[in-house]
Amino acid sequence: MDQKDRGIIACLTADARTSLKDLASEIGLSSPSIAERIRRLEQIGIIKCFTVDLDPKALGYALEAVVRIRPMPGKVQPVERLIIETPQIIECSKVTGDDCFVATLHVRSMEEIDKILEKISEKASTSTSLVKRKIVERRAPPLT
Asked: Hey, what domains does the chain have and what are their CATH numbers?
């Protein structure tokens, strides 16, 4: 990956809908060259997809919570299935340490959190924190 590729990625990270023409102008290459570089970055797995960034609050999800989940002995697989099947859990990582999973969920109310956690607590202990505000929004790792 060279400096031109890094520039393309930076532009697309800022706005994935940037046109080839605008990218070409910004990076200093032709539109066909930009298109070929993007295809190559996709083929080698650096660019995984182009997506839409939704605002959960605009969709009515007023609360965001981070839940640390520690399955009971022998319950890791059932808990993992439950996490996967819960659409309000928008992201979950399997982690090392005292807990096994760290999940992020978006809900419309405290009652909704309670219903989700009641299902999980049958198979695991949980520790929940409500997100007050984001200090760093999701961002790409450094390109250097």
From this structure: 3-43 (1.10.10.10), 56-130 (3.30.70.920)
pLDDT in tens, 22-52: 999 999 999 999 999 999 999 999 999 988 8
3 state SS of 138: coil
Dump pLDDT digits (tens) for 88-110: 999 999 999 999 999 999 999 99
pTM over 0.70: yes
Distances (CA, A) of 32 to 13, 35, 43, 101: 20, 5, 16, 44
